[in-house]
């Protein structure tokens, strides 16, 4: 047992070292680790951020519309169910095979991945707005577009942000295998273990974990910031104490 | 490092599978005949995948269910439990597999530990929500009739929470099938290994990936069917 | 709660009534310890409720709440069988008891026992709730606005059936309601409570209506309390006026003699079977023999079993102030008038029936 723990700590120590300092690569010839990782991280966040933004731009309007008119529930819910079942590795490989490699293609795949949670949550978020509130707004003379913009969207925002959060975590996680399509993210040391070595792989894994947690935390903060104060009081359904449990999240796929 | 070099390096990691065959295969198209011929190479990984999924979900469900029962009586525990399982849930599976490697070595156990830890939050959340959504008047009537808290839980609250619990189980199962695709990073095989082995060959990717999706769909429907069996009262609609 | 103290005789319905927040439900829930008793005690059959294990105590007390709380995942039979199963009854006994209870609450066992609550109407669910509370034949029952969730039309029916049931089974019941009319209709004894858990008055319905203890009770009972009392009695319960019953062709002298003797100044024409046909005009009594000349028909015809309040309502609607009262065969039993009813309001409260005894015949 102590042997295991000793080796465990040894490996971790080596991994931390990899993160902080440059060293010779395992296969020789190149310097890896240390500051190189900053570039990887930046790239990782870049490809993830772009993907999520595009997914938002696509899903939010569609979801708002569908939720407002109450149609397409099947689509919205099935999108999530299907999205959850498809292994991202297969998805990525599939598109590499058909579209080739590169930043754009990877972003495309990530966008596909990012859409279901956002779409579903936008739809659900709008549907759960109290119909009486909407009715009152209509009665006051607001147009349909104004109702969506001023009533439904603000009230649905917390749930929508929950979806964005889920989506972002999934995308960041999946971006780890982006190196398979020639996009260098933090997954590079993991995919190329023979260049970066075991400690490189472990170090990258640590960074990926930390990065994902950081993104989750940041978006949780954003979600809270976006919840109107009045809503916080009534949320949790009819005054029951609010369950401190995150909204339905599609589990991030194999990353 | 330029992209092309990196790309080649990536391919170099992969076990080169001989791809002999005419036309379709050479051109890397989608070849049903190839799939049919080579189907047996997927059988063993498929069952490995099933094994990983079922074992992980079973263990995860047991743990999360017990945690939920505990948190049902001691509400204050909900927050901490959600916090811990939430972190486990957020950490990407690849990272988790790799982080566990030094500790538990390569093999099934590592994969299972990681997969179990992902299901915890989903199931815990659904069991807890399901129990809490039981209308208060039923609890009141039950207590007033003389049911002890324990009897109330097992005879009233849990049966009524079954739909929510099984919904969580479905999510957990389909998610785990997807995650297990990367279990080979922990040395546990599975369909993902097949995908990775020949990642640029479309037919291979479609075959292995398709099997994974199929597995998820079958398990999902199975649980859905079980749910309908267990909840006859929901089918009996009021005329 | 503020020093609430009262005694409920066995076999009677004690109604706790009052405005929202008066603590009536709290008081009721203290009996089966759903709410803790901080000071004082509650004795059931002489034994303190605090002495027994709570769950065990509750199995001996029937419990019916407003939202009914039927378990949706159990059939009707399953719901009713909940406590018997806990007590370990065997299947046969349980099945028999379920059928027995369903019939008691006027539901067809064969039709209802395997249904789920989701398939029943509100009224049906309510009855199953009562059946469930009666499952182990508990000596005491607690009912918290059990008819509250039912629409007014069905509520009256259910109340009548409930009273009919009570006449048969004679349970000791603590019944909570906010509706004073329901309290008066159902209760043998009524405890009127004020906000803050204070007892304002504890009395029979008649006493409550005739001698309200204070301003609050007076207001709560309603300004029409005299009329409410009339709902408690039937025509057969009071002394009716005598009328001069005259047949066509009778000697006028005889008729006039009867008139002098009667309480009503107008002669009533009857047929050979003593059934009222109408009130005679003055001209009918001129000459040798009584002629059949009516000044007005014999309306409204009031039956002996009619509730006094309904009879009064009929009288007020018609043009005459006298209503001939007939028995089940249609034969004259007397005459009812508004004055008669008014005189009756002075009946001492002890002689006014209440609860199950006063129940409307419910032959609807």
Give the SSE string of chain B: HHHHHHHHHHH
CATH architecture of chain A: Orthogonal Bundle
What is the CATH T-level topology of chain B?
A: MetI-like fold
Give unreliable regions of chain B as ranges. 9-16
The CATH topology of chain A is what? Answer: MetI-like fold
What's the domain count of chain B?
1
The CATH architecture designation of chain B is: Orthogonal Bundle
Helix content of chain B: over 70%
Largest interface: A-B, 62 and 62 residues
How would you describe the overall organization of this protein?
- The complex is a heterotrimer of chains A (255), B (239) and C (364).
- Chain A is mainly α and 255 residues long.
- Helix content of chain A is 74%, strand content 2%.
- Chain A has one domain: Orthogonal Bundle (MetI-like fold), CATH 1.10.3720.
- Chain A has helices spanning 2-20, 36-69, 73-85, 88-99, 103-127, 131-140, 144-174, 188-191, 193-226, 229-234, and strands at residues 22-24, 31-33.
- A two-stranded antiparallel ribbon of chain A has the order 1-2.
- In chain A, strand 1 (22-24) and strand 2 form a beta hairpin.
- In chain A, helix 2 (36-69) packs parallel to helix 5, helix 4 crosses helix 5 and helix 7 packs antiparallel against helix 9 (193-226).
- Chain A is elongated.
- The two termini of chain A are 31 Å apart.
- Mean pLDDT of chain A is 80; it is low at 233-255.
- Chain B is mainly α and 239 residues long.
- Chain B has one domain (42-229): MetI-like fold (Orthogonal Bundle), CATH 1.10.3720.10.
- Helices cover 76% and strands 0% of the residues of chain B.
- In chain B, helix 3 (40-73) runs antiparallel to helix 8 and helix 9 packs antiparallel against helix 10 (202-230).
- Chain B is elongated and about 75 Å long.
- By secondary structure, chain C is an alpha/beta fold.
- Chain C folds into 2 domains: 13-230, 3-Layer(aba) Sandwich (Rossmann fold), CATH 3.40.50.300; 236-344, CBS-domain.
- Chain C has helices at 24-31, 54-59, 76-80, 82-86, 91-104, 109-112, 122-133, 152-169, 180-186, 205-210, 215-221, 225-230, 252-261, 308-317, 338-344, and strands spanning 13-17, 43-44, 47-48, 61-64, 140-144, 172-177, 189-194, 198-203, 244-247, 267-270, 276-280, 294-297, 302-303, 322-326, 332-337.
- In chain C, the strands form 4 sheets. Chain C has a 6-stranded mixed beta sheet, sandwiched between helices. A 4-stranded mixed beta sheet of chain C has the order 9-10-11-12.
- In chain C, strand 14 and strand 15 form a beta hairpin.
- In chain C, helix 5 packs across helix 7.
- Chains in contact: A-B, B-C.
- At the A-B interface, helix 1, helix 3, helix 4, helix 7 and helix 8 of A face helix 1, helix 4, helix 5, helix 6 and helix 8 of B.
């Amino acid at each position: 047992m102590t042997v295991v723990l000793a080796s465990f700590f040894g490996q971790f120590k080596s991994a931390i070292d990899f993160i902080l300092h440059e060293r010779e690569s395992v296969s020789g010839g190149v310097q890896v680790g240390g500051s190189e990782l900053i570039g990887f991280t930046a790239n990782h966040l870049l490809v993830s951020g772009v993907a999520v933004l595009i997914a938002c731009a696509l899903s939010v309007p569609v979801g708002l519309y569908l939720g407002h008119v109450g149609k397409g529930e099947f689509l919205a819910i099935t999108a999530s169910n299907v999205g959850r079942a498809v292994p991202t590795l297969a998805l990525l490989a599939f598109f590499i095979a058909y579209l080739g490699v590169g930043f754009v293609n990877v972003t495309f795949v990530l966008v596909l991945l990012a859409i279901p949670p956002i779409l579903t949550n936008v739809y659900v978020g709008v549907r759960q707005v109290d119909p009486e509130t909407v009715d009152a707004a209509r009665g006051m003379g607001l147009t349909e577009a104004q109702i969506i913009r001023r009533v439904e969207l603000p009230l649905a925002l917390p749930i929508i942000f929950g979806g964005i959060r889920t989506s972002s975590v999934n995308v960041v996680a999946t971006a780890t295998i982006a190196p398979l399509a020639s996009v260098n993210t933090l997954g590079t040391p993991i995919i190329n273990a023979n260049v970066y070595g075991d400690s490189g792989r472990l170090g990258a894994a640590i960074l990926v974990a930390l990065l994902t947690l950081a993104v989750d935390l940041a978006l949780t903060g954003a979600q809270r910031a976006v919840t109107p104060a009045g809503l916080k009081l009534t949320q949790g359904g009819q005054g029951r104490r609010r369950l401190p449990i995150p909204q339905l999240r599609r589990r991030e796929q194999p990353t | 490092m330029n992209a092309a070099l990196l790309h080649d390096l990536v391919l170099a990691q992969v076990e080169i599978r001989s791809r002999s065959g005419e036309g379709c295969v050479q051109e890397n198209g989608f070849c049903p005949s190839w799939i049919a011929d080579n189907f047996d190479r997927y059988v063993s990984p498929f069952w490995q995948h099933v094994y990983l999924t079922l074992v992980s979900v079973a263990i995860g469900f047991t743990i999360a269910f017990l945690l939920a029962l505990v948190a049902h009586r001691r509400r204050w525990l909900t927050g901490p439990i959600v916090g811990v399982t939430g972190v486990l849930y957020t950490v990407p599976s690849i990272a988790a597999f790799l982080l566990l490697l030094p500790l538990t070595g390569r093999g099934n156990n590592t994969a299972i530990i990681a997969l179990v830890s992902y299901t915890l939050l989903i199931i815990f959340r659904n069991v807890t929500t399901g129990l809490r959504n039981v209308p208060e008047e039923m609890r009141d009537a039950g207590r007033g009739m003389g049911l002890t808290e324990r009897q109330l839980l097992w005879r009233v609250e849990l049966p009524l929470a079954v739909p929510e619990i099984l919904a969580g189980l479905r999510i957990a199962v389909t998610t785990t099938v997807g995650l297990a695709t990367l279990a080979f990073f922990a040395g546990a095989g599975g369909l993902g290994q097949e995908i990775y082995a020949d990642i640029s060959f479309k037919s291979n990717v479609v075959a292995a990936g398709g099997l994974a999706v199929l597995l998820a769909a079958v398990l999902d429907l199975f649980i859905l069917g079980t749910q309908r069996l267990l909840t006859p009262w929901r089918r009996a609609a009021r005329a | 709660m503020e020093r609430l103290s009262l005694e409920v005789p066995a076999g009677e319905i004690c109604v706790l009534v009052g405005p929202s927040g008066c603590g009536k439900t709290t008081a009721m829930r203290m009996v089966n310890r759903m709410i803790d008793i901080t000071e004082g005690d509650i004795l059931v059959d002489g034994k303190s409720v605090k002495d027994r294990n709570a769950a065990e105590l509750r199995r001996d007390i029937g419990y019916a709440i407003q939202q009914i709380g039927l378990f949706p995942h159990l059939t009707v039979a399953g719901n009713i069988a909940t406590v018997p199963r806990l007590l370990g009854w065997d299947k046969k006994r349980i099945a028999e008891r379920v059928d027995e209870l369903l019939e008691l609450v006027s539901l067809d066992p064969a039709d209802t026992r395997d249904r789920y609550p989701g398939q029943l109407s509100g009224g049906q669910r309510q009855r199953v709730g009562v059946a469930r509370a009666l499952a182990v034949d508990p000596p005491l029952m607690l009912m918290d606005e059990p008819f509250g969730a039912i629409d007014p039309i069905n509520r009256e029916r259910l109340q009548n059936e409930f009273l009919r049931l009570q006449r048969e089974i004679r349970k000791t019941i603590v019944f909570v309601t906010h509706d004073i009319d329901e309290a008066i209709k159902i209760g043998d004894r009524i405890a009127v409570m004020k906000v803050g858990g204070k007892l304002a008055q504890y009395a029979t319905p008649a006493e409550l209506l005739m001698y309200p203890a204070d301003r609050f009770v007076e207001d709560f009972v309603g300004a029409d309390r005299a009329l409410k009392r009339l709902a408690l009695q039937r025509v057969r319960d009071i002394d009716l006026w005598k009328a001069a019953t005259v047949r066509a062709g009778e000697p006028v002298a005889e008729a006039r003699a009867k008139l002098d003797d009667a309480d009503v100044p107008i002669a009533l024409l009857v047929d050979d079977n003593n059934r009222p046909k109408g009130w005679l005009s003055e001209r009918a009594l001129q000459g040798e023999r009584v002629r059949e000349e009516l000044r007005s028909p014999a309306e409204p015809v009031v039956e002996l079993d009619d509730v006094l309040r309904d009879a009064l309502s009929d009288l007020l609607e018609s043009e005459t102030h006298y209503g001939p009262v007939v028995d089940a065969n249609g034969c004259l039993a007397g005459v009812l008038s508004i004055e008669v009813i008014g005189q009756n309001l002075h009946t001492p409260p002890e002689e006014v029936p209440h609860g199950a005894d006063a129940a409307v015949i419910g032959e609807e």
